[in-house]
Design brief:
Blueprint lengths: L4 H12 L12 E6 L4 E5 L12 H11 L5 E7 L10 H10 L5 E5 L5 E5 H4 L7
Parallel strand pairs: 3-4
Antiparallel strand pairs: 1-2, 1-3, 4-5
Length: 129
Amino acid sequence: MELDRKALLRAAMAAREFSYAPFSHFRVGAALLTAEGEIVTGCNIENSAYSPTLCAERCAVAKAVSEGKRRFVAIAVVGPEDSHTTPCGVCRQVLYEFCDESLVVLCGGTDENYMETTLGALLPCGFRL
């Protein structure tokens, strides 16, 4: 399967529009590509208690896993247009639970302004129980 980076980034940008970020105003969208070629999206959802806040990446993973999807090949994460937003440490470990080190991670703000890396590069010492 060929990875359409622009399509994945655009899906994450569309998901970013649904972000609920009244406290940080840092809107994030994510688009997770399954091994079957389906894109599952998520956005960050903040909470005034802070710890229940849900990152866009974990939102996308939760949606996918709750629908029976377990194999992923790439994720796009987009924040503000002028940034290269990367997954936080918690999200990196959650991704590691379901993906191997070769997961392609696109970090950006637009489909023109992004960097590409892998989960292994972002989380060199992830663990599984």
